[in-house]
Amino acid sequence: MTGSEAAAAGAAPAPPPPGPAAGPGGAPMLVLNRFQVPAEEADAFGAPAAAALAALRRQPGFLRGQVGRAADDPRLWTIVTEWAGAGFWRRALSAFDVRVELTPLTVHALDEPGAFEALLTVAGPGPTPDPAAPAGGLGRGSDRAPDAAQAGPGGRPG
To answer: What domains are there in the chain, each with its CATH number?
Structure first.
């Protein structure tokens, strides 16, 4: 049964393979894919988005994911995933079943950055991060190289 068939049948996707809680030497990654779907297709977008999320869920390093729809504009959808590291997310995009399920949705994707380093995670009530603390109160500093904005291929400025 394909991911689309499983989603349509209401079957739960296979659980993800066990993996590390964080990528080797890297921060967890948040990936936000946003889509603007024509009004006449908006109500039908949920099933293929769920199938794409099911395919992503089966990849190593997948931590969690959601499909969402804007409360104020039913044409706007998102697939939000969290990964153990950037390498896991990049390799997941090469998996055949991910390409089969996710590629047809990209015609509606918004052209904007979608991968982010997770620098702070909070859940429920608790202490508020101190903005005066190192890294601006974030739980961890960035793994991004200090010259990442200036470096380009072959050592040329970006």
So the answer is: 26-121 (3.30.70.100)
